Amino acid sequence: MLLNYFGAVIGAIWGGSPTAFLIRLLDFFIVYVIFYRFLVLVKGTRSMQILSGFFLLLLLYLLGTQLGLKTTEWLLRGIFANIFIIIIVLFHEEIRTILSGFELFDIFKGGAGKRDTIFMVDEITEALSHLASVHEGALMVISQKGNPEAFVTGGVPIDAKVKKELLLTIFAKKSPLHDGAVIIKDSRITLASAVLPLSTNPNIDPNFGTRHRAAYGISEQVDSLVFVVSEERGQISMLNNGRITRNMSKDMVRKVLTAYLIKEKK
After folding, report:
1. Which of the residues 5, 136, 178, 203 has an alpha carbon 20 to 30 A from that of 20?
2. How far apart, in whole angstroms, are the C-alpha atoms of residue 118 and residue 123?
3. Residue 142 pLDDT > 70, yes or no?
4. Is the pLDDT score of 11 beyond 70?
5. Are 39 and 50 in contact (CB under 8 A)?
6. Which residue intervals of the chain bear CATH 3.40.1700.10?
C-alpha cells in the first residue's frame, strides 16, 4: 500500500514525458534558489519581521476565504492584488543585493575568493590590534549578506579594498572621518564616518558611551560582526546579534573573523 502511494506521488510529479519532468524540476530549482537567497539575506534583520507579517496576512486571507469572512477577504484581496508592487517597494535593497550576487563565473573563483578573504581577515585584525595598542577609538561593521547601509545615516561613500593602512588613516584622531563607523560589505569598504542607530537596550553597561551603544544598535538590526575599539581602555570588543564579547585578543579576533567570513562565503 505504501509503495502504491509513493508510486502515485512519483507519477503525479512525472506528469508525462521525461522532458516535461525535467522542465518542472528546473522550474522548482530556480524558484528554490531565489527564495533561499532571499531568506538568507533577510535573516536577522527587520525585513524578516516584515516577511513574517506577510505570511500572517496570507494565513488570515485563507482563513477568511474558508470561513466566509467577506470583509476580511475583501480587504486582504486588495492587498494581495498589488503584492508584487508592495514587495518591490519594501524589499528593493534585498532584491538589488540578490541580483548583484549572481556572478556568472563564481564557480571558478573558489580558491581566489578564499585567499582574498584570508587577506582581508589579516588586514582587519592587524588594524584593530594597532588601534587598540595606541588607544585609538574605532567602530567597524562587517557583513557579507546583511545590508547595514539600510540602517545607517550619513557617511562618506568609499569603494576600496580592505587595507590596514586605509583603516588606520580613517580612524586617525585628526582624520575628518574619525567619528562614526566604517562599513565593510562584500569584502569592500563601502562607507566611512557612518552614523549607526543607537540601541535602547536597558541592560547595556552604563559605562559604555555612544560608540558602544551604536555597535549594539546595528548588531540588533542586521546580521554582522561589529568591532569596537575603546579609546579609554584600549580594548577590542565584538558584538553580534546584540551580544557582546569584551577584551578580545588579537588571536580571538582573527579566529572569529575567519569563521564568520569563510562560512558566509560558502
Report:
1. 5
2. 9
3. yes
4. no
5. no
6. 109-265
User: Which of 224, 253, 254, 220 has its CA nearest to residue 236?
Assistant: 253
Q: Specify the fold of 109-265.
A: YojJ-like (1 (3.40.1700)
0.85 exceeded by pTM: no
What is the enclosing helix (H) or strand (E) of 48?
Answer: helix 46-67
Where do the DSSP E strands lie in the chain? Answer: 138-143, 153-161, 181-185, 188-195, 225-229, 236-240, 243-245
Compute the average pLDDT of residues 171-186: 90
Cell numbers linked to 140: 567597524
3-state SS string for 128-196: HHHHHHCCCCEEEEEECCCCHHHHCEEEEEEEEECCHHHHHHHCCCCCCCCCCEEEEECCEEEEEEEEC
Find the farthest-apart pair of alpha carbons in the chain and give their distance in angstroms, rounded: 78
Distance (Å, whole) CA 181 – CA 215: 9
- Backbone dihedral angles phi then psi of residue 68, each to the nearest 5 degrees: 75, 30
Q: Within 10 A of 63 (CB to CB), how many other CB atoms are there?
A: 13
Alpha carbons 37 and 50: distance in angstroms, whole number: 17
**Cβ neighbourhood burial of 174 (10 Å; 0-12, 13-18, 19+):** exposed
Residue with cell 587577506: 119
Q: Is the pLDDT of residue 102 over 70?
A: no
